Amino acid sequence: MQQRYVVPGGRRGSVIGDRELDALAQLVTSGTTLSAGGWREAFEDAFSRHTGARHALSVTSGTVALEIAIRLLDLAPGDEVIVTPQTFQASIQPLLDLDVTVRFCDIDPLTLNMDPAALERLITDRTRAVILVHYGGCPADMDAVMALTRPRGITVIEDSAHALGATYHGRRPGALADIATFSFHSTKNITTLGEGGMITLGRDDWAERVRRYRDNAVDGVYVRHGTAPGRPPAALPWMMFADEIYDRACVGIRGAGTNATMSEAAAAVGLAQLDRLDELVDRRRMIARRLDEVVSAFPGARPVRAPEGYGHAYHLYTFLVRDREMREALLRELDARGVEVQLRYFPLHLTPEWNFRGHRPGECPVAEHLWFEQHMNLPCHPGLHDSQVDHLVDALAAGLTAVTGTDANLRGDTAATV
């Protein structure tokens, strides 16, 4: 099938090279286990060092990482959770299974991240958690968020699916809150063969619960020297699970575990990809700088940039235009010039399932206005060749010229090779 678009959207957010292929060849010829082995341990150790988090625990997807993170909150009926509407549905979908009150927090129009001022207005004495997203790879204002939540004992989950490679005043997403989750889906800044996720956190007890849950054990409460019947076989003191079966009693069950084990092949590729992260994110940033220059040159358009002291990872490239008429005209112009545009993300509180839970227009006026009137995304990923980046920049300039009637005076280096 012929590719319609000269510049396609990012169905692959990363690129696979010799380093990843060499790691796979080493694994499959080694004769070692293909599940829960040394590659997974090495990937988790490297990820822990990268983020600065005490624990990094891999799972099978970013969605599973979020499900487990929310499970750690031990939410009860009547608890309240504050979330952002500007994200993919997986960020908050596990809350649909729980009898809790979900409050959607409006966004900062400059970054599209959760607005701390709006957050403060939503906090009550029943607020148990906040789930935020570093939208597009731009970190949220974590100092302000943690100043509001930490004194109140509110747990913060940072959904960092977009933010691998970003920085926040010299620190990295993954260790900026109480719990963080990452995705290694095919579209993300690094991939573990299409699917994969990571949970990072600091608490040892939470880390133990994550391990039990992902490894098909019960997420329960245990005490030593329990009342389990029988004795371990005397000749087999090394027997797997012997201490858990014979030397502990379960005094409470939070939930059943599951198998969320990242394969060794996925971990091997993830380790190689993590080693290349700076290279991959630098490519995204170079493309974004070229797009920023074009957008900034036209009236009625502005880039969404990271504040001073932040390092944007540009999982998404986002800019805003004057109004709906301008956006619709520009979408048509770009499509006609072979640029695939995918707008991310529709405000979650307006989706059918959250409508069913009682949410309505007007809850997040900033998010609603930006989405329906001004929001634009463009392809920005390292899989784009230099010629495709040149075409993207030229198409954007031509499209903006057509819809604004302005022939901007762009500098000559706008078309320079990335």
Count of alpha/pi helices:
13
Largest sheet: 7 strands, mixed
Distance between the termini: 29 Å
Strand order of the largest sheet: 1-8-7-5-4-2-3
Spatial extent as radius of gyration: 23 Å
CATH-derived architecture of the largest domain: 3-Layer(aba) Sandwich
Question: Brief description of this entry?
Answer:
The protein is of the alpha/beta class and 418 residues long. The protein has helices at 18-28, 38-51, 62-71, 116-122, 142-149, 204-214, 242-246, 264-275, 277-296, 324-336, 352-356, 365-374, 386-404; strands at 55-59, 80-83, 101-104, 127-133, 155-159, 167-168, 179-183, 197-201, 219-224, 248-255, 301-303, 310-311, 317-321, 375-378.
Describe the structure.
This protein has 418 residues and is an alpha/beta fold. It folds into three domains: 213 residues, Aspartate Aminotransferase, domain 2, CATH 3.40.640; 37 residues, no CATH class; 139 residues, Aspartate Aminotransferase, domain 1 (Alpha-Beta Complex), CATH 3.90.1150.10. 35% of the residues lie in helices and 16% in strands. It is built from 13 helices and 14 strands. A seven-stranded mixed β-sheet has the order 1-8-7-5-4-2-3, with helices on both faces. β4, α5 and β5 form a beta-alpha-beta unit. α9 runs parallel beside α13.
